[in-house]
Structure formats: C-alpha cells, structure tokens
Amino acid sequence: MAADVHKKKSWEVSNGSLVPGDGQHTERSESPTPGLAQGTEPGAGQEGAMFVHTRSYEDLTSPEDGAAAVRSPEERRGEPAEQSSMEQISKDFSELSTQLTGMALDLDEEMRAGKEGKLEPSPQTTRRDSVLSGKEEEDVTMDAWRLHRKHVFVLSEAGKPVYSRYGSEEALSSTMGVMMALVSFLEAEKNAIRSIHADGYKVVFVRRSPLVLVAVARTRQSEQEIAHELLYIYYQILSLLTWTQLNHIFQQKQNYDLRRLLAGSERITDNLLDLMAHDPSFLMGAVRCLPLAASVRDAVSSSLQQAKAKSLVFSILLSGNQLVSLVRKKDQFLHPIDLHLLFNLISSSSSFREGEAWTPICLPKFNSSGFFHAHISYLEQEMDLCLLLVSTDREDFFTVSDCKRRFQERLRRRGVQHALHEALRTPFYSVAQVGIPDLRHFIYKSKSSGLFTSPEIEAPYVQEEEKERLLGLYQYLHSRAHNSSRPLKNIYFTGPRENLLAWVTNAFELYVCYSPLGTKAGAINAVNKLMKWIRKEEDRLFILTPQTY
Amino acid sequence: MAQMVTSGTSPEGPRPSYMYKVVLLGSMSVGKSSLAYRYVKNDFRELLPTVGCSFFTQVLELDEATVKFEIWDTAGQEKYQSVCHLYYRDAHAALLVYDIANKQTFSRAKLWLEELEKKFLPDEIVIALVGNKTDLAAEREVTTEEGEDFARTKGLLFMETSAKSNHQVNDVFMAIVQELLRREKEKAPRPSPHGRSTVDLRASGARTRCCRS
Ligand SMILES: Nc1nc2c(ncn2[C@@H]2O[C@H](COP(=O)(O)OP(=O)(O)O)[C@@H](O)[C@H]2O)c(=O)[nH]1
Ligand SMILES: [Mg+2]
Asked: Catalysed reaction(s) (chain B) (predicted)?
C-alpha cells in the first residue's frame, strides 16, 4: 500500500506568482475590459486563490498532452488548407446546429436503417475505417451497442480490459484487442493523444502508462475535449489506487487484471462520465459555487475554519455539485480536478447519506503517491449538504468526526442554519435576474479563482437532448477558443436556433447564449451589462474571501 | 472487555454503560450495509456500494446496562483491504456476513475468520456468522446446517437473516450484546486484561480539547 500523505513532497505549483497577491481588490474595476489583469476580474478572490492556479483546460492537455491528431488522409484532404478561422467556424457551426439538432432523430433513423440494411444518413458513411467497421459488422449484437454516443474503455498496456462504459469487458475483449493493435500502430511516444476519424466517429486514445484509455465518440467534441475527459477517467482511477500503487502492480505483473482491485467502483467511473456530459464544471476546469449571501457564507466558512484539527488539510461543504465553502490548510491548495473527483465520488454513492463514511482517497493532482482519508457525511437527513473533511491521518477518524460535531454546533450558535436552508431551496438562479431580454444562458469563469457561475438552464433547453446540445455548443466554442494551433479570443456566431458569443481573456472566460433574434451589436452591449451584473453579484456568486486554518 | 463509561457528574449508577465496537465483514454485496441500515434505521433500501468504511452508532437501553454500539461497515473490496484491517483492530465483536444464495461468499467468510483469528484471541472478540438474504430461499446455495456446523466447530454465534424482510436482524445484534455482557460479567472481578487501546468515551473529550488549540 502506498504511504499516506503526510507532507506534500513535490509541490507542483512552482508559479506562486500566479496566485494574486493581497490588496488587488482595490483595483477592481467597475466594467471589466479585455485588458483586465488577472486577479481583478469579477469573481477573483480578494485574499488569494483557493485552488491551485491552472489554466484549466491547458493544464490537462499540454504540454506533454499536446493533442496530436492523426487524421485519415481523406479527411485531411477534405479540409481546405487555407480557410480563415471565422469561415471555418461558421461552417462548423451550421453543421453543429443542424447536426446536433437532429441528433435524437438521427439515432432513431439509424436504428431503423440498421435493421433494414439501409445506408446511414451520415455523409461520412462511405469513409469507413476498414479495421473498425470490419469488426463491427461481424457482430450483430453490436448494433444496439453502437448507438451509445460515447464509449469509453480503459485497458492495460498488456491489453487486459480494465473498464468499459457499456456492456461487460468480457464481451468486448475482442474489441479491446483491436484497440490495442491500433494503439501500438499509432504509438510513437508515451503520454500522447492519438485519434482516428471514421464513419462519423472519433476514436481518441490517451496513453498513460500503464493504462491506455480509449473513447469512441459520436459527439461533436474535439479530440482535445475527449482526451480531457479520458484524463479525468485516468485521474479517477488514480484516486482509488494512487499512481504509486498502480505502477507497482503492473511492474510486478504486466498482465495483472486490474478489475479485481476496481470491483465495486465501476459506478464511480460511470457516474463521472454521466456528470461530464451534463455539468460544465469539467469543461471549464472550474468549480461552481452555491449562490449564497456573503454574510452567510462567511459564517459557514468561519465555523468550518474553527472546527479544525491537526491532521485536516481541507474542509469542504458542498451541495449537489456546487461548492458552499472550502477551508484549507495554509499553503495547501486544492486542484479543481481533485475537487471534481470528490464531487463525483459523493454523487456516485448513496451510501454516504447514512452514518459517517471514512475512506481512503488519493487526490492525484495534489499528490498522486499517497492516500488521504476523507470523512464524508451529510449534515441533516433532508438537506442536500455534504461535509467532506480531508485528513492526512487514517487513525484520526474520531478526531475528525468530532470536528463535524463542532462545526454543526458553531453553525447553530451563529444562527445561519435557516439562511442556509433557504439558499438550498433555490440552488440555481434564473438568467432573468440579469435583466437582458435576449440573454438565454451564460457561463462565466474567473480564471484566478478557478470558480465559475452559470444560471439554471431554462427554456427552450428543457429536454435532456436540448440541454446536452447547449453544452455541446459551449464545448465547441471552448475548443475553438483553446485550439492549440489557432486559438480565438472572440467568437460570435449567429445560428438558426440561437446566437452565441465566446470571449476569452487572460482574466476570464465568458460563453453566452442569446435568442436568435438579436444582433451582434446587441450581443456586445449585453456582454457589458452582464459583466456589470456579475460584478455586482460577485460576492453572492463566488467565494471572494477563502479562509485557511 | 469494553470500556466502561461512567457519567462524569453522578456517581456510579446501578446500571453500567458500555461501548462496543462492532465490525461488519464479508464479501461485496452480501448485505453488510443493508444489515447495518436495517438495524440502525429499521429500513431497507437499495444502497449503492459502500466506499471505504461507514460508521454508525446505536444506543441500547437494556435492563442491565446501557450499551453504545459503534458499528463499522466496511466496503469489502480488495483495494480497501489494506486499510480495513485498521477498522477491525480493537473490535469487540464482528459480524461475518455471507449470502446464503452465493456459496463463494461463504468460503470468503471462512477466510475472513482466519484473518480475525490471526489478530484476536478467542476471548477477545465475539464473532457471529451471519447468513443473509434468507428471503432468497429458492436460490439458496448454502444450507442452514452448513452454516451452523461451521459456526459450531469454530465457536461462533450463528444466525440467518434477511435485511430485506427484516428477519432476525435485531436478534443478531441482541445475541452479540448478550454474549458481550455475559463475558463482561465473567471478567468483572478482574481488571480488563487486554492491552489494546479502546476508544474511551471520556478520553474522547480530552482529545477534543487537545485539538482545539
Ligand atoms: N433479497 C435480498 N437482497 C438483499 C438483502 N440484503 C441486501 N440485499 C441486496 O444485496 C445487494 C448488496 O447489498 P449491500 O448492503 O450493499 O451489500 P454490502 O456490499 O455487503 O454492503 C443490494 O442490492 C441489496 O439490496 C436481503 O436480505 N435480501
Ligand atoms: Mg456495503
């Protein structure tokens, strides 16, 4: 077993300078400009950041993850070499708008087409990858299986199945074999991302020795984004085992069957994949806060801060997948990815609802070599308020359990429970509060705090597919804005169903969705108004004064 | 045996208080969490697999004593086993659970017992062998006799339960309490012989103070 984390040995964040210094709040500007310095944007913490400073997305995928897509020759030919970015985007968007719109329909049609032996409606049907399609056509039972929008497989470098999102790994072991063959075929260097485009699918490979992660996706995500999700799965596995243990196992026995060790936790991985399809936190690489009056949040944070113990590193209160408060040991920063993994762990098991849980957990971005011990419990039966106390000492259950009791006692004494209850009744705010008629939805991320805010997704994005389509549009904008070869800082697109805008600066990222009736000038106007609104509401929507113990 | 808990203010009452640590052991999905949930909440629901360990408390007001149970429910997954031995250390009682409809879990229970026998002397821990899921009678793979015989040869308490239909769940815990109290009486004249550190409720107050600093 890996040793417990007692002291953070190799602190990854060498760039302490990126954490905004004190006193910057005096420079907070009324109306943010693109030149806004990091640390002064709305939502930036006034007393330093809570999280490890990351450039979110890039942090996962570069430099060592630098996405190097291998495309089929046809595809490369099909792509005009000299097309201006904007034109390219317009083209992509109209494709996206129509294709994403018709997603549910396409699936239906394809199901019928498959049975009747008709051609698929996809124009790429003719461009089949011989290896993959050959395999698929052999197996009739694959029809239903193929309809899932995204398959994810994890296998060991020896080709042993570790995880499969749908269906048993057993049944798919032949597929795994094909994948291993592809991996070795594509393999040039370790830790590389490779992808194949075929037949309306993207097959993305991420190799993280001793594991290989593969996604077969018919979503419109970029390779980078799919790879980003695969890395989350990788980190999820590390959080159960530690990197040290994982490597040790495979050094001892190359063809070890890891499923034995992971038995019972497939659900956690399933849940993570589902969450990533619905929750923009993962795409943004940031954390959303429960909207809460600053005075209430401060009282909660102080209560958490006072209920400390020697072995505690992080005290986290969360509701759903939103952060209520986070208190950390001085000089120890949590990484948003680690927090996402904790969120996922909690939402994936109802067993935490009862009693108190005490579980070893590795926070791979913090320290991938050892386990922390997390005390997990819900504060009250009927309230969606979960307390997570992360300790370095596995022997410390009772001390940490007592911290919970003290925290609750302080909450009571400060009399904020009622206010907390109230806030939990409306965990999301409506975009109508902003008062911009054409505004439908937005995501705003403060880069220095690693926090983002976003209203509830409302009409016309009511159906699940519609919600996913909206997230798909954001994903697309995000990938364009972060494209490693042609990043775009401003994107505006008018579509038949909505207009969209993306604005990425050093300090923040903003993605906005408008009704299709508005104009570009109106959209830009609205952005100014929106930014002012966020500034006005920032102490409710963000955690501006994170605390430490 | 157990930590005797005396009230800080009043002198020794006629009824002593005891705190016992009870652990649930056994393969995945045999119904450990469901048994704990049934016992503590008197309810059954579809729980998702346990992660790590869960901790529950239950206070019993009996005629002869007040008993506080600290119940540890372990995940029973291999990856947690290295951690879970910590949870059965210092235990006063263990429920060794298997699924009567799954023979393999019965063999696993035997292995758990070997593990326990390495860690504890027979008089240090009360062990109950529990065949759960009696409501699945049609799928039974382990007969009552098999369970009984094994328990008898090893000197374990034995009971078959169903967390789902609430069959004998309370009885298992009651049988354990009775056995613990019986041993308590046997040992009463002598001071507690074991050198293991048990959680003393009084001491936990002191611990609280020391980490407030
Ligand atoms: N039929 C039946 N199912 C049970 C019983 N107890 C638990 N289960 C089911 O068995 C599965 C595993 O139960 P769980 O308590 O999580 O097992 P654990 O892994 O040992 O904690 C769940 O689907 C339970 O609903 C029982 O007494 N009868
Ligand atoms: Mg369980």
From this structure: GTP + H2O = GDP + phosphate + H(+)
